[in-house]
């Protein structure tokens, strides 16, 4: 007696023979992406027509993104209701709503980046990075002195803040018990929320008591920024250290390794990726501060590489000064201000890329 080989019929899709996705009651995989492209094209064309006769910087990218999202949502849900079913249409509507919520969060960032890039590229040239503003009241000039001031002041602030913040977090996680640890945690939480100008006023008052009033130096600016950085480093490092499993510590102790060496060789390497990210967040938090640097580092139109004497210009103060005191050519001053803002964003981006590289390079899975 022979048996007959009965095979189920093949399911067809948009790429195989038989019924297509549309006739099978399903939208093709490429349909949402094609609809998204068409929606974006419609929005760009619409806002380009509305922007005719104006500058490229006046293009409303936020509005174009919002219109593209609405057109895409309406089109996709309508097609899904026609081709698929009501249940699939509701599912796609929920997905689109979540995606639109994500876009709404991104809109301010996208609009900000677009505005800064478009306006900043006008003076993003060699002169801007090789000249200072000394004796410049009209066109020309650059931000060399502000770039060096930002790098020096932020670097010194990091050198002060990172060791203090990291050792404080190690104490709180590994050693801290009782009232002292609770008091440190309380004051760190309080320092996290203080206004930045208060940090500048604190340093100005402290230096005035020690050296007398009227001092503005880069070191004062670094100290003011370190007051803002330390609590961020402490809180972020503390959370990363608490994520290290206790089993790793116990295994090290079982082998006879002392506690300090366990922290150095086991705990810190395990959490180095998160600690590095927290440090970069603290740097990004303070590198754009203006108010404390106006009070402490002051401003100057000349290049000053000495942190201990004379005022030192930074990029945030440079941008503020160009808007506040444009000189004889307002348009040239505005271009320098936008270029300074773009330079500051690029510096933060480079620092974050370096932090990601360090985190991946020294993470436990890449360790020796």
From TrEMBL:
Region (Disordered): 1-22
Transmembrane segments: 29-49, 61-83, 95-122, 142-172, 184-211, 217-234, 266-287, 337-359
Compositional bias of kind Low complexity: 9-21
GO molecular function, one term: phosphate transmembrane transporter activity
Organism: Microbacterium oleivorans
Biological process per Gene Ontology, one example term: phosphate ion transmembrane transport
Membrane topology: Multi-pass membrane protein
Entry function: Part of the binding-protein-dependent transport system for phosphate; probably responsible for the translocation of the substrate across the membrane.
Family from the record: Belongs to the binding-protein-dependent transport system permease family. CysTW subfamily.
Signal sequence, start to end: none
Lineage: superkingdom: Bacteria
Pfam name, any one: BPD_transp_1
Major localisation: membrane
Annotated ABC transmembrane type-1 domain residues: 147-355
Protein name: Phosphate transport system permease protein PstA
GO cellular component, one term: plasma membrane
Keyword entries, A-Z: Cell membrane, Membrane, Phosphate transport, Transmembrane, Transmembrane helix, Transport
């Amino acid at each position: 007696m022979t048996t007959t080989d009965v095979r189920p019929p093949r399911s067809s899709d948009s790429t195989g023979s038989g019924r297509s996705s549309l006739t099978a009651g399903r939208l093709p995989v490429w349909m949402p992406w094609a609809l998204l492209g068409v929606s974006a094209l419609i929005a760009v064309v619409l806002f380009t027509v509305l922007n005719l006769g104006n500058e490229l910087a006046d293009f409303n990218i936020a509005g174009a993104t919002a219109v593209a999202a609405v057109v895409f949502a309406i089109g996709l849900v309508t097609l899904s209701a026609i081709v698929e079913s009501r249940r699939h249409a509701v599912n796609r509507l929920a997905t689109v709503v979540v995606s639109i919520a994500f876009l709404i969060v991104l809109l301010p960032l996208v609009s900000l980046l677009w505005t800064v890039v478009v306006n900043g590229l006008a003076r993003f040239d060699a002169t801007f990075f090789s000249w200072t503003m000394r004796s410049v009241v009209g066109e020309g000039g650059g931000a060399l002195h502000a770039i060096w001031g930002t790098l020096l002041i932020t670097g010194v602030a990091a050198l002060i803040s990172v060791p203090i913040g990291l050792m404080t977090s190690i104490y709180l996680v590994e050693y801290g018990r009782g009232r002292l640890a609770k008091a440190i945690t309380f004051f760190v939480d309080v320092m996290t929320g203080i206004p930045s100008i208060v940090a500048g006023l604190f340093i100005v008052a402290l230096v005035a008591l020690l050296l007398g009033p009227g001092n503005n130096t880069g070191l004062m600016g670094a100290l003011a920024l370190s007051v803002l950085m330390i609590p961020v480093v402490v809180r972020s490092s503390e959370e990363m250290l608490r994520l290290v499993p206790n089993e790793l510590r116990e295994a090290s102790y079982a082998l006879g390794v002392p506690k300090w060496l366990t922290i150095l060789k086991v705990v810190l390497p395990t959490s180095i990726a998160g600690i590095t990210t927290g440090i970069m967040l603290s740097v990004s938090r303070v590198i754009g501060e203006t108010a404390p640097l106006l009070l402490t580092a002051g401003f100057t139109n000349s290049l000053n590489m000495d942190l201990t004497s004379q005022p030192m210009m930074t990029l945030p103060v440079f941008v503020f000064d160009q808007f506040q005191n444009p000189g004889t050519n307002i348009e040239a001053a505005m271009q320098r201000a936008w270029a300074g803002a773009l330079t500051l964003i690029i510096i933060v981006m480079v620092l974050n890329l370096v932090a990601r590289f360090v985190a991946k390079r020294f993470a436990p899975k890449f360790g020796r």
